[in-house]
Amino acid sequence: MSFTGLLLAGGESLRMGQDKALMYGGVARLKEVLLRCGAHRVIVLCGAEARVDFFKGETWADPPHCNGVHQVVEWALSQIKGDVMLVPCDAFLFEERACRAFLEMAQQGGVPADLNGRRQPLFSFIPEFFEPPSSVISMRTMTDSLPTLSIQGFGQCFTNFNRSEEIEEHQHELSQISW
What we know:
Strand 1 (3-8), helix 1 and strand 2 (39-47) form a beta-alpha-beta unit. It is globular, with a radius of gyration of 15 Å. It has helices at residues 26-36, 69-79, 96-105, 139-143, 164-169, 171-176; strands spanning 3-8, 39-47, 59-61, 84-88, 111-112, 125-126, 148-149. By secondary structure, the chain is of the alpha/beta class. It has one domain (3-176): Spore Coat Polysaccharide Biosynthesis Protein SpsA, Chain A, CATH 3.90.550. The strands form two sheets. The protein has a five-stranded mixed sheet, with helices on both faces. Strands 5-7 form a two-stranded parallel ribbon.
């Protein structure tokens, strides 16, 4: 399966207190996972123009008219032909086996569920034929029409981290990831 990977690395990481795009192998590790899983192109959506040079490879700054990740993703989708997989930069537990298992199930699109069964729209697989709803107010509303996919044994891989306390809770799992 060929697709474009979009790495979401534009947040300010205020709750974490350090740039999440650089932690635990950061964007470079996630880019490698996507490439090994069939991405023919990986684009880092980096937020402010000042962050473009933080990352190697194809990196796009947010357009000035965008306010929020949902608007940035909607804009990026309009610029890309083909299927797209989203991955947030704080997907510290994301790994190749989980990505492959998800892609197998998501060929017609989908949103993975985390370990607790919650939809994780920042990891969505968005097929080329996808049409966002007319009024998108969040990533959740943008991806409502995509099915929820539970990937047996890999729910924890679709977790993102916002605070240092969450890292402490998952220290054992994080120590198992190679980067």
